[in-house]
Amino acid sequence: MIDIYSYRKLKLKKKKVRNWVLLALILVTSFITLALLSSISSNSFQSSYHNIVVSSNTIIVNLTKLDLDSTVWDDISKHINSKDSFVKIIMEGNVVAYYSCTNPEISVLNAKKEQDLAMNVSLHLLRKGFNIKNYGNFPLTLENSYILNRTPNKEVVYAISKILKIKVVSNFVFDENLKDDTSGIIVILGKDFDVKRMEN
Q: What span, in angstroms and rounded, lies between the C-alpha atoms of 77 and 193?
């Protein structure tokens, strides 16, 4: 039989052990929660666009047609922390662009219907060190040339604009005529384009 003094002492010991166990559980849970939150925050970032996520070295942007303005590029460029970063733009479930941030892929399309125009311009840009993905014909004939820019890399767009003497740059990400072209930059050569004016 146990006396009251021994009983109280035993109860106090059990209470202390229980408190230490509870404290240890709280600390372990806190560390696990912090670790999970830090891994989530390292793979994503806050943006004025709730639909931009960084996964590994790829910035994934989910857009709707209402999101198409130039501030999305400012958001993306703030979070390019590696020379090996890639951007994947998804619109309504379809990948509309996938390119390297530092050396974006470029497509050259002929909307003038002049034979070999896109090929000749592509070769010229290749010789200048640009990353040409493909060239071909645009499905429509257009009066004016323009550069469709889906990248935050303004330096490359500016350099192409200067070489080709094309002043119009559009940041409109999606064009129904280009739904199969995922290049970061698309050069569309209209009737106003003159090969002779290109910078050598």
A: 31
